[in-house]
Design goal:
Layout (H helix, E strand, L loop, with lengths): L1 E5 L9 H6 L12 E7 L1 H4 L4 H20 L5 E4 L2 H12 L3 E5 L4 H16 L3 E5 L21 H10 L17 H15 L7 E4 L22 H13 L5 H4 L12 H5 L5 H16 L7 H24 L21 H9 L5 H13 L4 H14 L4 H11 L5 H11 L15 H8 L4 H6 L8 H5 L6 H7 L10 H15 L7
Parallel strand pairs: 1-2, 1-4, 2-3, 4-5
Antiparallel strand pairs: 3-6
The protein binds flavin-adenine dinucleotide (FAD).
Length: 503
């Protein structure tokens, strides 16, 4: 018997570790049957949010259903994995625990503890690369260093051969539901009493309240492999062939919206990539316009950005709290609490910024172009430390992923790898005008501006108080003057670089 420990890979198909644990796939593989397990770890829950707990529970419910369809089930326990996994292994008489690697610093510390705990009781353990197509150590510069410039990383990433999707386990590779129930009752008798496992059972799922969280106000969207596959199929059917041309327009629904599925591992990245290769073959045929291959490649580039940031985090775990790029003098952020609070509420008086912040609140999601705009606004118009923004996104995004979120924030703040240069400062009005010309996205999330001409919305900062009061009395005036703040931001960054701010 094997134990397969699910973490950020809530799927049965294209799961490298699960295929190994169940003896599926490669000839002579020595796995199976495997008992699938998920552990609610108090240390991980300490960093969670209402949104992400809801999304996780939905993903686990879908995973449990997938196992039940295969005659098995999901064992769920609550407690410190260092204590829970050795006990579960004993209860199931398992001689090996298998999992997929997680590349964040916190996860790596936890996994080191689990390895030690399993070694202490002579249970084998095995960790696989699964979450990315190319593991964080696989792609390095010719000098052997990790990449800090995306375009060079991409060249190597795209040239490398990609693994095929891992095969899904057959029913005989999985422990059947009765066997799991026996183990769970053994565990009950053995261990609940000493507090190592504080809760659990076969198919047991707590409510958010049981875990100390509330139901979120936002709609977190569908979860699970079937929903992820539907979304990928839909996207690859048509939208991908215009992805590069359309992806920056938030009203157009031109992106895949796969991020939360990828974050929770509800779809395997090999499966997703193989599907894009099929789309590429179609793009190269006569059935599609000449530029279709570039459009598909642009989408593959986003999968590579995800892996680029995974390797940045892997090699530089400190970036979670520190600037990647050190500024000689340190950046003297203004950090005005009222301005930061108005940004969070979506009441800055800059329509595209407010629409984005309200989309976040309502849908636990924000379009990529708008994430860039609101992040630039927080750091370069409000002169607030990117960490305020990162913490807010971490709290509110269903797809929050430490590597991507941190990468996105440090890019916008000009502190990261391959970041936006500090002197490139988005103008929130022209960004709104260019990417939401009819103000469709803006008015979807900012009802106070509905019924107004798009031109008026894009000129909001230039209107007089009377014009604003007549046009949309409930919508705020801009809380800052963009041109003034732009100058202040340039001076702030120059000082941090040890340069003369007046030059
Ligand atoms: C400030 C900021 C914070 C961000 N925080 C997150 C986050 O917490 N989690 C997250 O997954 N993405 C984050 N991103 C990246 C990007 O905004 C989202 O991945 C994207 O909007 C998700 O929508 P989609 O699935 O429709 O993307 P698509 O355009 O369809 O892209 C497909 C997939 O590629 C990956 N991807 C796309 N863009 C990026 C990128 N710039 N960096 C890394 N991976 C990317 C995602 O997994 C995404 O699902 C952030 C970007 C910024 C600027």
């Amino acid at each position: 018997m094997e134990l397969f420990w699910h973490r950020r890979d809530l799927r049965v198909a294209d799961n490298v570790g699960l295929a190994a644990a169940t003896g599926t796939g490669e000839e002579g593989a020595d796995g199976g049957p495997a008992a699938p397990v998920f552990v609610f770890d108090p240390d991980v829950l300490d960093h969670a949010s209402d949104v992400r707990v809801r999304r996780l529970l939905d993903g686990l419910a879908a995973l449990r259903d997938d196992y039940r369809e295969r005659g098995s089930d999901l064992l769920v326990a609550r407690g410190d994995p260092e204590a829970v996994l050795p006990r579960l292994a004993a209860a199931l008489d398992a001689d090996r625990v298998v999992w997929n690697r997680d590349y964040s610093g916190l996860a790596r510390e936890r996994d080191a503890g689990v390895r030690r705990a399993l070694d202490a009781v002579d249970v084998e353990r095995e960790a696989h690369h699964d979450a990315v197509l190319h593991d964080p150590d696989a792609i390095r510069t010719n000098a052997g260093d990790p990449y800090s410039v995306y375009s060079y990383y991409w060249k190597k990433w795209t040239d490398r051969t990609k693994d095929d999707p891992a095969p899904a386990p057959t029913a005989h590779g999985l422990a059947d539901a009765d066997r799991l129930a026996d183990a769970a009752s053994a565990l009950d008798a053995l261990d609940m009493a000493d507090g190592a496992v504080t809760d659990g059972g076969v198919g047991w799922l707590p409510s958010p309240a049981d875990l100390g969280f509330a139901e979120p106000d936002a709609e977190v969207g569908p979860a699970g492999t079937a929903a992820a596959r539907d979304r990928l199929d839909d996207f690859l059917d048509e939208a991908v062939f215009a992805y590069e041309a359309e992806r920056d327009y938030p009203a157009r629904e031109a992106t895949s919206r796969l991020s939360a599925f990828l974050k929770y591992g509800e779809i395997g990245v090999r499966e997703a990539y193989a599907a894009t290769e099929e789309a590429m073959a179609e793009a190269e045929s006569d059935a599609r316009p000449d530029d279709a291959p570039e459009q598909v490649e642009e989408f593959q580039q986003q999968l590579a950005w995800r892996e680029f940031y995974a390797q940045v985090l892997f090699h530089n775990p400190e970036v979670v709290t520190e600037n990647y790029k050190a500024y000689e003098e340190g950046i003297a952020w203004r950090d005005d609490p009222d301005e930061i609070a108005a940004w969070k509420r979506g009441e800055t008086g800059y329509p595209i910024v407010d629409a984005g912040m309200r989309q976040l609140r309502e849908e636990a999601f924000m379009h990529n172009r708008v994430r860039m705009i609101v992040a630039s606004f927080l750091t370069k118009d409000l002169l607030a430390d990117w960490r305020h923004g990162y913490d807010h996104f971490r709290d509110k995004l269903a797809d929050h992923d430490t590597a991507n979120d941190n990468g996105g924030w440090q890019w916008a703040a000009s502190t990261g790898t391959d970041a936006q240069p500090y002197f490139r400062i988005f103008n929130p009005m022209t960004q709104g005008e260019r990417y939401d010309p009819e103000a469709e996205y803006i008015t979807e999330y900012v009802p106070e501006l509905r019924g107004l001409d798009a031109d008026l919305i894009h000129e909001w900062h230039e209107l007089s108080p009377t014009q604003r009061a007549n046009a949309a009395p409930d919508y705020p005036a801009p809380i800052v003057d963009h041109s003034e703040r732009r100058e202040e931001a340039l001076a702030m960054y120059k000082r941090a670089r040890g340069e003369d701010p007046d030059e």
